[in-house]
TrEMBL record:
<dbReference type="GO" id="GO:0051119">
    <property type="term" value="F:sugar transmembrane transporter activity"/>
</dbReference>
<dbReference type="InterPro" id="IPR004316">
    <property type="entry name" value="SWEET_rpt"/>
</dbReference>
<keyword id="KW-0472">Membrane</keyword>
<keyword id="KW-0762">Sugar transport</keyword>
<keyword id="KW-0812">Transmembrane</keyword>
<feature type="transmembrane region" description="Helical">
    <location>
        <begin position="120"/>
        <end position="140"/>
    </location>
</feature>
<feature type="transmembrane region" description="Helical">
    <location>
        <begin position="6"/>
        <end position="24"/>
    </location>
</feature>
<dbReference type="GO" id="GO:0016020">
    <property type="term" value="C:membrane"/>
</dbReference>
<dbReference type="Pfam" id="PF03083">
    <property type="entry name" value="MtN3_slv"/>
</dbReference>
<keyword id="KW-0813">Transport</keyword>
<feature type="transmembrane region" description="Helical">
    <location>
        <begin position="152"/>
        <end position="174"/>
    </location>
</feature>
<dbReference type="GO" id="GO:0012505">
    <property type="term" value="C:endomembrane system"/>
</dbReference>
<feature type="transmembrane region" description="Helical">
    <location>
        <begin position="68"/>
        <end position="85"/>
    </location>
</feature>
<comment type="function">
    <text>Mediates both low-affinity uptake and efflux of sugar across the membrane.</text>
</comment>
<feature type="transmembrane region" description="Helical">
    <location>
        <begin position="92"/>
        <end position="114"/>
    </location>
</feature>
<feature type="transmembrane region" description="Helical">
    <location>
        <begin position="45"/>
        <end position="62"/>
    </location>
</feature>
<comment type="similarity">
    <text>Belongs to the SWEET sugar transporter family.</text>
</comment>
Amino acid sequence: MNTDTIRTIVGIIGNVISFCLFLSPMPTFRKIWKAKTVMQFKPDPYVVTALNCAVWVFYGMPFVHPDSLLVVTINGIGLFIEFLYIMKKLSIFLGVEIILFAILVFVTLTFLHGTKNRSMLVGILAVIMNVAMYASPLTVMRRVISTKSVKFMPFYLSLANFCNGGIWFAYAFLKFDPYILVINYIHSYPMVWERYLEQFSSSFMQNITKPPTGTMKESQMKLNFKETRTQSKVIDRGSSKRFPSFITKPRFQVSESARYFFNSSLK
């Protein structure tokens, strides 16, 4: 099996994983469509992802970077899925993205000649956009720290992102593509930091909720000791009303005759 065949198989696997990741926000889309409002969800990631997919579709074209059909297919699918949201709620952003993309296509095809120069310009722009897009999950860390909860970082979603980055890294390594190689190498780091933060947050919460060390008997002894010290302080202040009479009164009384006899014997 030659390198091109292996690269094609790896690319198909990457397409499948990426397609599943593109579908992951669909529950969010359903909530937005039913509520007729974006609610607390921010549209920025979808706008950036749509433009990013458009740039990668252009990058994979034969007149920009040959032999990149699988890059075109998956980013074309991603572009279509993102447009389903943007066309309904963010038509203004869609217009801006179309203008920016048209400028990129015009400049690339008019002023740059040869696939090497074209792939360099489009590849660099795509890497910059991917760095911004892949770094966006790191904003979740602030929410995790403030809420002391990791529910905002689903494990399987992070794992799928990590595997997706690894697959496309291998795809770019088999037939050296520096731009796809770089972005997927960078892609892995946010996922690693998210998992590290999850472990740190879980350990932190366990330490907070951990019961005091020692047996119940030791704890009860400490509690009794504290109560005894408190009672001693109350006695020292002269507040004897809080205690039984056998503490504050003598247990026997001395008669007058006995006291006289005792005083006489001392003279």
